[in-house]
Each structure stands twice: as C-alpha cells, then as structure tokens.
Amino acid sequence: MAQIFIIFAGQSYITRKMIRFDNANTHHHGRWLVYTALVVVTVALIVSFLPRNSGPQFRYDVGKPWMYSSLIAKFDFPIYKTEETIKEEQDSITDAFEPYYNYDAKVEQEQVKRFIDNYKDGIPGLPAEYVSTIADRLHRLYLAGVMDALEYSKISRDTTSMIRIVSGKKATSVEIMCTYSTMTAYEQLFSDPKLAAQRQILQRCNLNEYIQPNIIYDEERSEGELGDMLSGIPLASGMVLSGQKIIDRGEIVDDYTYRVLNSFERETKRRSASSSAVPSTIAGQVLFVGTLILLFTTYLRLFRKDYFDKPRSIAMLYVMITVFPILVSLMITHNVLSVYILPFAIAPIFIRVFVDSRTAFTAHVTMVLICAAAVKYQYEFIIVQLVAGFIAIYSLRELSQRAEIFKTALLVTLGSSGIYFALQLMQDNSILTMDHSMYAYFAVNGVLLLFAYPLMLVIEKTFGFISNVTLIELSNTNKKLLRSLSEVAPGTFQHSVMVGNLAAEIANKIGAKSQLVRTGALYHDIGKMKNSVYFTENQMGGINPLDALPRIDAAQVVISHVTDGLKMAERYNLPGVIKDFIKTHHGTGKTKYFYISYKNEHPDEPVDDTLFTYPGPDPFTREQAVLMMADTVEAAARSLKEYTEESISNLVNKLIDQQVEDGFFRTCPITFHDIAVAKQVLIERLKAIYHTRTSYPELNKKGKEEQQAQPAAQ
Fold first, then answer.
1. How far apart are CA 460 and CA 345, in angstroms?
2. Number of folded domains in the chain?
C-alpha cells in the first residue's frame, strides 16, 4: 500500500508540475502536453496492475447459465480433478500410511546383558530367581518394541494406527498400541503380579535405565515412500475427445461441466502458451484503458476546461480513476475476498462534493468500465456499480453531517441489493436457488462507505480542498481566533457576523456556496485586531485616532488590515480559500475617504494612487464577489441618517453599481442576474434589520385649517 501511495503522490506531483508549465507563450502546446501526459501516466499505472490472461476467457460459475454459443472440443484433453478432490485423496493416503521404524536387536542384547552383569549376585532382599524373571520381562518388552517417549506421544496423536517395523529384510505391520514407549514399558514391568508385589524393592534398582528405544523412526524411507504414493495419484478422472460437445448455450453449469470447462481452459492455455500471448494481452489492455481515459479527458477538454487550470482538481480526478482499478486488480490477482466489498461510490461522492455532479457521473462510469476489465462477471458488476454510483450522486449534495453519509450508505446498500436481486430473478427465475452470499458483501460495502466522512480530511489535505465539515468547524465562534476577535474588536466581530448572514443568503439565492462565504465573512476582517481602535465600528464615540494622522499614514493603517489579516491566517493555518476572502474583500479599490481628502488638501500636487490602494487582487469567484458586495453595503448602511426603503435602495444600488463600474467583478464568473439578485436580497434584509417604515405624508396648510375648523363647527 505504501508503494501505491508513493505512485499516486508522484502522479499528483507530476500533474501539478505539468500544469505550471502551461504559460502564456506556450499555452496551446503546453495544454496538449498536459492532456497527453495525463492519459499516458494514468493508462500506464492501471495497465501495470491489471491481471494478465492467455487463451480464451470465459465467465461461468456453478448454477449459472452458459452465456456463450455451443462449445465443442477441438482436441482431446483430460478432465482434471479439482484441488479439493486431490486434497481429499492425498489426505486419505496420508491417514492410511504406515511409517517405517527400524528394529535394533543390539539394544536388547546390550541392556539385558548389562542388567544381568549388574545383578549377577542377585537383587538384595529378593530371591535369586528374580534376576532371570526381570530379564525375561525385558525380553518380552523389547520383542514388542520400545519407542522413544516423545516419538511415541507424537505418533499417538496422529491418525496413524499402524506402523511398519523393519527387521533385516522383513517389514511387519504392527499396531501402535502393541508397542511401548520407554515410560509405558517401565510401567508394564510392574504389571506382572510377581514383580508388582516387590515394587518398593525393585524401584531401588532403577530398572528404567535398562529400558531403551529399540525401534527407531526411518525418516528418509517413510517420507520417500509417502512421496511416491502421493505422486502416484492421477490428476485426471476422464477424457474428452475431439469433436465432443461440452456445453450448449443456456445450459446450467453443474459441478461436472464446471470441471470440464476448467480442464478445457487449462489445456488451451498450455497448448497456446507462447511469447506472443502476454504482449497481445497487454496491447489489448492498453487499447481498452487508453480509449476510456482519452474519452474522459475529452469530456474535460470540451465541457470542463477550467479544471486543467486547477492542479488540485485534475490531480484528484485522475487519482480517483486510477486507485480503484488498481485495488480491484490486486484483489483479483491475489484472490482476496470479493471486489463487491470495495466502496466504489466513495469516488463519485468526493468528486460530487469537491467538483460537480456531471463530472462525478462521467468519472464514475469511466472508473467502473475500467474495473470491469479485471472482474469475472462484467455485466452484473457494471450494472450494480453504476446503480450504486448514481444513488450516491443523487442522494448526497454536501458531505457536512454524519447523518448524510449514513443515509447515502443505506441507500447505496439497498439499491445495490435491489438491482442484484432483479438480475438474479431474470437469470434463475427461482428465489430458492439464488446465491445469497452477495448481499453480505453489499452490507460490508455499505459499512466501508461510512469511512467517506473521516477520509474527507485526507482528501482535503492531499489535494488542497475544503469541505463543509471543515467550514462548519472554522465558523465555530468559540475557536480561539474568532473568540479573540470578539474580545479585541467587538464591533468588527458583529460586522463580520452581519456580513456573513447577508452573504450566505445571497449565495443561497444564486446557487453559490453559502457555507463557504459565511465562513469567509467571519475571517475577512481579522487583521483589524492589530489596530482595532482605528476602525469606527470599534470606537465608542469621541475622537477618531485616524484624524490625528496624515492622510497617507491613515490610509496605510486602514489598508494594513488586509496584510495583517493574511499574517494571522498564516499563523493560525487557515485554508487558502479563507485567505482568498481576506485578500479580495476590498479588491484593488481605494480608501476613498482619505484619497479624496488628500487630493482636496493638495490640489496642485500629483498623487501616488498606490499609497491609497488595497493590494488586491479583485474577486475571482462568485463567493468572493458576494462578500465584497455584502461587506461594502453593510458598512455603509451604518452611516445612513434615516432608514427608509428609498434610502436603503439608493445606497445599495449606488454602491454595487460603482463596484461594477470600477471593474471589480471582471475576473470572476458572476452574472448581471446574480448581481441583481444580490441587490434585492441586500435591500430586503437591511429593511428588516433596521425596521424601515413607510413615510407618512403630512397635511398641507389647507388640510390643517379644515381639521381645526371641524370641532368649532360641532
């Protein structure tokens, strides 16, 4: 797995380097170089892991119908036994095998003679005939056979019940129970009534010293004999003659036919084995995978050109398409469990969350078709995985809560099980004969799909994305940075919250990312913490410190909140997309109050506009443009003398129209319709915030005189 990770990391790095190579002077050629390199690298990685096969590849299984045309034997071939059958025959031979033991007559002679020599004067306390009695009993024990205690214990635990004792040129089969170990032989001595009566005296004689193994295991002969018997097992149990029909289309594959088909494929591979088999297989795999990857790249080229300018997006897409075919190939090659336990739906989920749904659909189809090249039953695999991917894409819009991924996992499991059940009904036509093991794999697949939630962090860190989960965590006002903002600059904090609410509502109306813009709004002014008293929202009235500074210095203090905010963001490791909100919320605009004041105070002097200009850049996403509009309008609305529908509408239209005129939105994909919607939302929300009322008309002079005259008349 470490090697695979390194490969993918390298692929991602290569992709980023290639895309950076694309510049203004070599734009066209560089772009085609990127396309070519992506296809070549991806195809090479996938094909290098795909399993290699030679000869015909039939897909069949016991209990399933034969999907191909009638199969006729083109040559004679044996019907090979299954591995299970051969194993049973081997076990049977092993169980019945009698290991060989060599009988050593010298052991008895030596030990009995030694006993007699030691006790030639008799055993103290016993009559003289006890010496001959014990010698006779030792003779009987050695005649039956004495084995080493450890060897005897080992063979007694085996299934072997007989052994062959070789004495000279004669081998005799003997039951294990008829022989003795050194320990049981010692006890057998005292089973004799005569010796048992004198056990206490005889124990002082250490009779165990005269009991030694006289039958020794012959390892070389035993293993050689057993090997010959095992090698003599026939591997085949019949023959199929040339021209004989093996199976017809639609026939159900039974156990016998399955063996015949396996034997046919085995013999075909043996006969057709040549140096051209593997290269031709590789060529076919390269053509197949290359076509699919090229089609996916063409889709991106025609409909998603912007992704080739985003290294993180293009890297994630091609890694997702690559990793699952490699995992499938490894599982098939090493026969590890079932490929149906792999949560393929994770890929379209991540692509849907971080990119878009159309690309997720296209990438998923491409990935499933490539994986089908390695599996056994391609038709059902493709159908099941496509359904699982569709459900994942349709059911999950944003992966921000654990309940969402649980719901998706449940729906994917039910959908996969349902479509597989439908396929079984069409093939088997009987519920009783269906294979139910697959449903356990679907359940495991659903459980593994739950890991999409924690894996999102890995995807974020690897490719530089940001998810709603991370955004929600960042928008927690108890986080240290936001808590400091609320304490040091409470006015700025309240302003940021208001801007976040306004921007999020606009984003919801125009189909932008509301959680992203809300989180960006909370952090866009964090740089004001450094000099919080210089900003009006944090002043409690009285003297403004900026009034005591020269106009240029005052402008630099205000402008510095952008650069100071970026430094804080770096210190607190805020994501890049949040930093972009800090940089772009003023764009390349000017601090107009100080700029105009300086020009009025110095009418005859040239003005360096850069001293009054924010560093920028201008917004380059819709979310950044929305934040700029909401930030400008909310801050300016605080300066209105009265809050009427007319004053608010005029303010909003004036400010946003000026931003459009200044060209702040030229580099972002926001439309005039989006801007119109933003204006309407801002007007309605500000009216609700400041409780605007309809201005009641006053009576003119004539009306007042008539109203005063009515009581007098009464």
1. 18
2. 3
CB 151 within 8 A of CB 190: no
Helix (H) or strand (E) holding 518: helix 514-523
**Are 332 and 387 spatial neighbours (Cβ–Cβ below 8 Å)?**
no
Classify residue 243: in a domain, yes or no: no
**What's the number of CA atoms in the CB half-sphere (13 Å) around residue 134?**
33
Lowest mean pLDDT among 170-174, 646-650, 704-708: 704-708
Which domain range does residue 583 map to?
Answer: 469-689
Alpha-carbon distance values, 182 to 151, 185, 592 (Å): 10, 5, 109
What single string gives the DSSP state of each residue in 286-352? Answer: HHHHHHHHHHHHHHHHHH-GGGGG-HHHHHHHHHHHHHHHHHHHHHHHTT-S-GGGS-TTHHHHHHH
Mean per-residue pLDDT over the chain, rounded: 84
Q: Which two tokens stand for residue 691?
A: 């409780």
DSSP label at residue 590: B
CB of 657 closer than 8 Å to CB of 665: no
Contacts of 501 (CB under 8 A, 6+ apart): 518, 685
Would the pLDDT of 258 be above 80? Answer: yes
Contact 678, 505 (CB under 8 A): no
- Note whether 614 and 555 are within 8 A (CB): no
For residue 669, give both structure tokens. Answer: 């994909």
pTM of the model: 0.65
Neighbouring C-beta atoms of residue 36, cutoff 10 Å? 13
What tokens appear for 557 in the block? 């203090």
What phi and psi values does residue 239 have, to the nearest 5 degrees?
Answer: -135, 150
Q: Are 360 and 474 found together in one domain?
A: no
Domain finish residue from 431, 463, 495: 463
Q: Are residues 161 and 105 in the same domain?
A: yes
For strands 77-80 and 236-240, give the pairing. antiparallel
* Same domain (yes/no): 212, 108: yes
On the question of pLDDT at 599 being above 70, the answer is yes
- Are the beta carbons of 637 and 650 closer than 8 angstroms? no
Are 531 and 543 a contacting pair, CB within 8 Å?
no
Which pLDDT does position 708 carry in this prediction?
54
